[in-house]
Design a protein that fits this description.
Strand order of the largest sheet: 1-20-19-18-17-15-16-14
Radius of gyration: 30 Å
Number of strands: 20
Distance between the termini: 37 Å
CATH architecture of the largest domain: 3-Layer(aba) Sandwich
Helix content: 25-40%
Largest sheet: 8 strands, mixed
Number of helices: 22
Oligomer: single chain
CATH topology of the largest domain: Rossmann fold
CATH superfamily of the largest domain: Alpha/Beta hydrolase fold, catalytic domain
Length: about 650
């Protein structure tokens, strides 16, 4: 076995109570935490110019001290007093005769201030002046005439970036209010005496133009429900794009959650124009900051301003997602309708899938902290794509494993049909709690071992309708999914959990609503096959809590199953009792003795409670390490001609 490392960090508080007795009991098992708001609408948009231009101060907005000093140099306040329009016109005349970076900067400021003052009474004039502010800031930053005088260490340089970003955002807000902000549309504006045609283009996206339903501005929101907010500084306006449902073919559309939102950065590119030209063509370029982090302007690399966390938090703040965990546990009969594999980006050939599988009384929402942090790591997001599995957690884990095998085969059929993508055969599964058992089981071969946990009678001799018999066969007879090459289990009860026995099991049987058809099938099966099954071990009609009991023989069969070739296992275990030996420790729900397995490449022990173990920073770093190790192993191996799951040799 690989190295063991013991890590100690402060524990995270247990999940809150959920109300009834059953909620109290089951929350001790594997709850994922209390529902909370993830974003809040700000009273005023966040603006980098707020302090510099005193936007919200009494008597504001007003120019910065450096701009006022430049105006005094040309005696403009004495000549024109408080008349902003005349001062602005005079400075433009001076700038045309003798262009300087300082006057370009001052003109960007003055146009922005004039636009702020005109916005409510003259929206079109305000938009033109905001665009003029963008143009002058762009000139300050990129005009070749200023290369020898431009000082990137001068705070004014960052101020020009802020002017560009803030003025462009205000332009887009006005365009959105008028219904003109959408890919493929052209805006007709004016600036500095020129007519401007702004074409809106989607670039660097796997999403298509028709996928954009609407845009929100990141600056309107505070993120309060994600611990980390991942942003980068540069040029452009960070946006939240809300995806339009139904734009993909039906077999692909089912993999996208409804109302999903994703990050966008809008960048306005002003191309050189002919001297004296009255018409200027510019492009508003929309970029995916998860794929494109910089653009090239005037032969230099320009980082894009981005925020990849706020769009994620905005999507997760949807009230319809708040109770998926309870819905999936207590009403698995209904949860089956929305169960399946979900993607948060279009399928990306060449990127290795990482499928995250949640535990009992949980949902894919429990992985969003992990997704948020892993996507912020360039070395991870450039090589991996992240998928999530939603399933009814009230049913036994081995039944869910059967459904996952089928769903993975369908993914192979949908996305591997046009061309062979070898990364589909290098998949990594990451499972928390019961999700780890499901993930590991997908990699195993059954033989007759699992069927023998419920019956000594040959399966062929079972008397049942064909449909029922097939539903049993898919659960108890299976082959390893050869596309899964690595599995990470986190706080998984490989030997069961004491919480899943006794009184708690009775509560689960009382409150978990298994489908009526399932219960009827169980009765029918027993009636047609008296004495065929071991006591209390009918192959249908059980709950997830039953399957997690230490008495469940399927767990013992899994532990005895030979490790498949070509698959590597990793393990993360929680231990929260300071003075107790590791072998006697626990994460509060799963003991170390149950979570520990011998056939792993590595095992890390983290001081975190069960419900937060998978979201702990040390666990996220361990997942990162494993994913990088996976890449190293693939680079070191010769091309094996990976056969995707579901493929059979002729």
């Amino acid at each position: 076995m690989g190295e063991r490392r013991r890590i100690r960090h402060s524990s995270v508080s247990r999940a809150g109570l959920r109300g009834a007795v059953v909620a109290l009991a089951l929350a001790c098992v594997m709850a994922c935490g209390c529902v909370q708001r993830l974003v809040q609408l700000r009273s005023d948009p966040q603006n980098p110019l707020a302090s510099q231009l005193q936007l919200y101060a009494s008597g504001g907005p007003r120019p910065s001290e450096r701009t006022e000093q430049l105006l005094r140099r040309y005696d403009l306040p004495t000549r024109f007093g408080a008349s902003g329009t005349q001062t602005l016109s005079a400075l433009e005349t001076i700038h045309r005769s003798q262009p300087q970076p300082e006057t370009a900067y001052a003109l960007a400021e003055l146009n922005y201030i004039a636009a702020r003052k005109a916005e409510f009474a003259h929206r079109s004039r305000a938009q033109d002046q905001y665009l003029s502010a963008v143009a002058y800031a762009y000139e300050y930053l990129f005009d070749g005439r200023y290369d020898t005088r431009r000082n990137v260490y001068d705070p004014q340089f960052r101020g020009a970036c802020d002017l560009y970003n803030a003025a462009l955002e205000e332009c887009l807000r006005i365009a959105q209010a008028e219904g003109n902000f959408r890919p493929g549309h052209t805006l007709a504006l004016a600036t500095a005496g020129r007519q401007v045609e702004v074409t809106i283009e989607s670039r660097g996206f796997n999403w298509l133009a028709q996928d954009f339903d609407s845009f929100k501005f990141v600056s309107d929101f505070d993120v309060v429900g994600l611990k980390n907010r991942h942003r980068t500084s540069g040029l452009g306006v960070p946006l939240i794009a809300v995806r339009r449902t139904g734009t993909a073919p039906p077999d692909v559309e089912r993999y996208y959650p409804r109302g999903f939102s994703f990050p966008v950065t809008a960048f306005l590119r002003l191309d050189p124009h002919e001297p004296g030209s009255r018409r200027l063509s510019v492009r508003l370029e929309l970029y995916d900051p998860l794929e494109v982090t910089d653009v090239h302007v005037a032969d230099r690399r320009v980082p894009l301003e981005s925020d990849i966390s706020t769009p994620l938090a905005y999507f997760l703040d949807n009230p319809s997602l708040a109770h998926l965990d309870t819905f999936g546990l207590l009403r698995p009969d209904l949860a089956r309708r929305i169960a399946g594999l979900y993607m948060v980006q279009p399928y990306q050939p060449g990127k290795i899938p990482v499928l995250m599988v949640h535990g009992i009384w949980s949902s894919p929402m429990t992985w969003m902290e992990v997704l948020n942090d892993l996507r912020a790591m360039p070395e991870i997001r450039e090589r991996y794509q992240f998928w999530f599995y939603l399933y009814p957690t009230g049913v036994p884990f081995h039944e869910t494993a059967a459904a996952l095998r089928e769903d993975l085969a369908e993914v192979q059929a949908v996305f591997g049909r046009e061309r062979h993508d070898p990364t589909l055969g290098q998949m990594v599964l990451v499972g928390h709690s019961m999700g780890g058992l499901i993930s590991r089981m997908v990699t195993l071969d059954s033989g007759d071992d699992y069927w023998q946990t419920v019956s000594d009678r040959p399966f062929a001799a079972v008397n049942a309708p064909p449909e029922l018999k097939e539903s049993i066969r898919r659960v108890y007879f299976f082959e390893s999914d050869r596309a899964v090459r690595r599995v990470v289990t986190i706080g998984s009860p490989h030997r069961g959990s004491a919480y899943a026995a006794g009184f708690l099991r009775l509560l689960a049987q009382r409150f978990i609503a298994l489908p009526m058809q399932t219960l009827a099938s169980a009765r029918q099966l027993i009636e047609r096959n008296p004495d065929a099954f071991r006591p209390g071990a009918a192959p249908v009609g059980r709950t997830a809590v039953d399957s997690l009991s230490p008495e469940n023989p399927i767990l013992q069969v899994m532990l005895r199953s030979p490790k498949p070739s070509g698959v590597k296992y990793h393990n993360v275990v929680g231990a929260i009792v300071p003075d107790r030996p590791l072998t006697e420790n626990t994460d509060g729900v799963v003991t170390y003795a149950s979570a520990h397995v011998d056939d792993v490449e590595s095992e890390v022990v983290v001081d975190a409670e069960h419900s937060s173990l998978h979201r702990h920073p040390r666990t996220i770093l361990e997942i990162r390490r494993i994913l990088l190790e996976h890449l190293d192993d693939l680079r070191a191996q010769p091309d094996e001609g990976v056969v995707p799951a579901g493929h059979t040799d002729e």
